Amino acid sequence: MTTYVVAAALGVVAGVLAGLFGVGGGILFVPILTWIGLSQLHAEASSLLAIIPTVLVGVWRQQRYGNVRWRPAVILGVASIAAAVGGAQLAVSLPEATLRKLFAVLMLGVAAQIGWRAHRQQP
Predict the structure, then answer these.
(1) Looking at beta carbons, which pairs linking 51-59 to residues 24 or more positions away fall under 8 Å?
(2) Fewer CB within 10 Å: N-end or C-end of the chain?
């Protein structure tokens, strides 16, 4: 039971930090999920699954404002499904250590992008 409480508390903290820094929650959620005991593969899958409700609510709200262009959205959605299936097959075929290293490279890239944007915006 305490694992669920810790996971929920860490999820709130990660969500706030993701909002503050403008990064996707997965960049913060995946390390937290691995820290509480999930494998890298399961942490990434859980993070992707958690995005679905957020996307659905976001599309619903933005559609009400007239901000959704359905044709490009459908094309991106279909391409995303194909990429997700291919990515899942690749992730399953990789050793856990390799998957962790690839995720670390992604995190370094995101950190570099955040740093670059902050550097560019300084007067």
Answers:
(1) 51/25, 51/26
(2) C
Do 14 and 27 form a contact (C-beta atoms < 8 A)? no
Mean pLDDT of the chain: 86
Please give the structure tokens belonging to residue 103.
């995720």
User: Which range marks the domain in which residue 74 is found?
Assistant: 2-121
Query: pTM of the entire structure?
Result: 0.66
Residues 6+ positions from 73 with CB-CB distance below 8 Å = 59
Name residue, tokens 């820094």: 21
The residues, any chain, with a CB within 8 Å of residue 74's CB and separated by 6 or more, are none
Helix runs in the chain, H state only: 2-21, 25-35, 40-64, 70-93, 96-121
Percent of the chain residues past pLDDT 70, beyond the cut: 98
Contact 27, 110 (CB under 8 A): yes
Number of domains in the chain: 1
Q: How far is the C-alpha of 34 from the C-alpha of 26, rounded, in Å?
A: 12
Return the closest-CA partner of residue 29 out of 106, 17, 53, 99.
17
Joined together, the tokens standing for residue 75 give 């094309």
